[in-house]
Specification:
Layout: E1 2-8, E2 11-17, H1 23-30, E3 49-52, E4 55-58, E5 71-73, H2 87-94, H3 104-117, H4 123-129, H5 140-150
Parallel strand pairs: 1-5
Antiparallel strand pairs: 1-2, 3-4, 3-5
Helix pairs in contact: 2-5
Keywords: 2Fe-2S, Iron, Iron-sulfur, Metal-binding, Oxidoreductase
Protein name: (2Fe-2S)-binding protein
Length: about 160
């Protein structure tokens, strides 16, 4: 076992981990932050996306020890402390970007990373950026609408696929 220390959602945390422990398992099993989902264990679905030092990463493909000393943000950090949804989360709700909800944490974290780097993406750019996230309920159309709305753009012109 190795001692691991990092900052998660603004709080210093530490724990003992085996070298093979994935970041997603450390977050869920050790820190009990279960908003980060495990969907595929093969980096295909994107349900486990978190931000490490400001960059979106799939936590199922990163060893926890690789995040030693890092700043990690999970879906739990997105809403205000009183539970008020942020603009992106509210847009997902308002534009029905939530279906079963399993993919939602990863979609929101990926979308937040996109909007940080590209505050006014085109519809094509949103769709391209979300290529690494799978929604099994086929909610992509409304997810794209939600992201476009969160960026302050008109969603009326988004074509259904």
């Amino acid at each position: 076992m190795t001692q691991l220390t990092m900052t998660v959602n603004g709080k210093a945390v530490s724990g003992d981990v085996e070298g093979r422990t994935l970041l997603v398992n450390f977050l869920r099993d050790t820190l009990h932050l279960t908003g980060t989902h495990v969907g595929c264990d093969t980096s295909q679905c994107g349900a486990c996306v978190v931000h490490v030092n400001g960059e979106a990463v799939k936590a199922c493909t990163m060893l926890a020890l690789e995040a030693e000393g890092a700043e990690v943000a999970t879906i739990e950090s997105m809403a205000a402390p009183d539970g008020t949804l942020n603009t992106l989360q509210q847009a997902f709700q308002d534009h029905h970007g939530l279906q079963c909800g399993f993919c939602t944490p990863g979609m929101v974290m990926s979308a937040a990373a996109l909007l940080k780097d590209n505050p006014k993406p085109t519809e094509a750019e949103v769709r391209d950026y979300l290529e690494g996230n799978i929604c099994r309920c086929t909610g992509y159309h409304n997810i794209v609408k939600a992201i476009m709305a969160a960026s302050g753009q008109d969603v009326g012109a988004i074509a259904a696929e």
